[in-house]
Design a protein that fits this description.
Elements lengths: L7 H8 L8 H5 L17 H16 L3 H13 L4 H10 L2 H7 L6 H9 L3 E3 L2 E2 L12 E4 L7 H9 L8 E4 L4 E4 L14 H8 L2
Antiparallel strand pairs: 1-2, 1-3, 3-5, 4-5
Helix pairs in contact: 3-9, 4-5, 5-9, 6-7
């Protein structure tokens, strides 16, 4: 499966946000990468700002261009505000929900857990990170994977995330996807309207 495997700190510095989680390099160098990054004062065009938001969303959720474009097409065909529907679809991805439940410290780590067949949905192993969850589906750690150090370490280190659209039982390592979250419930700093404007050109 294709995915971005380049330097994450460079991307975080580009956007000026720790989109991959805590980043010590971003704290030290909170300016864009490159020779002239610290002195760059060039005004960004409207198109540049729209493109920047799309790239930020792609990197944040670990989605490549074709997947992102397909999700946007689904969002435009759905009822509701296109940008908000798009973010809802991204949040409904299995790898994102595994991350939100605290089973992995990053979305990349969550994607790996799914790909390595450690996660089940409604009792069946699902190894497709982009699997789109539906309301009411049960997500769990596979029985023989419950002793994995990486999962237990993540659960012990994470402040138990409380998201109104998710349920999580620490003892059984089982969670439930209650519903697609509303925009106000999604914590990501993404201006989705700019993405809609970009695709509308």
């Amino acid at each position: 499966m294709a995915r971005y495997i380049g330097p994450k700190s460079k991307i975080a510095r580009k956007f000026g946000e720790a989109i991959y989680g805590a980043d010590k390099y971003l704290e030290k160098k909170n300016y864009p990468p490159g020779q002239h990054g610290v002195n760059r004062r060039k005004k960004t065009s409207e198109y540049g700002m729209q493109l920047r938001e799309k790239q930020k969303a792609k990197y944040t959720y670990g989605v490549l261009e074709r997947q992102f474009s397909n999700l946007f097409d689904r969002a435009t065909r759905s009822k509701g505000i296109t940008g908000e529907v798009l973010l809802g679809l991204l949040e409904s991805r299995l790898d994102n929900v595994v991350y939100r439940m605290g089973l992995a410290p990053t979305r990349a780590g969550a994607r790996q857990l799914v790909s390595h067949r450690h996660i089940t949905v409604d009792g069946s192993v699902v190894n497709i990170p982009s699997y789109s969850l539906k309301a009411g589906q049960i997500i769990a750690v596979r029985e023989k994977s419950k002793s994995l150090e990486v999962i237990n370490t993540s659960l012990s280190n994470s402040s138990v995330h409380k998201y109104s659209w998710l349920e999580w039982d620490q003892h059984t390592m089982t969670g439930k996807f209650l519903n697609v979250p509303e925009r106000t419930e999604i914590p990501e700093n993404i201006k989705e309207q700019l993405i809609v404007e970009l695709y509308s050109k």
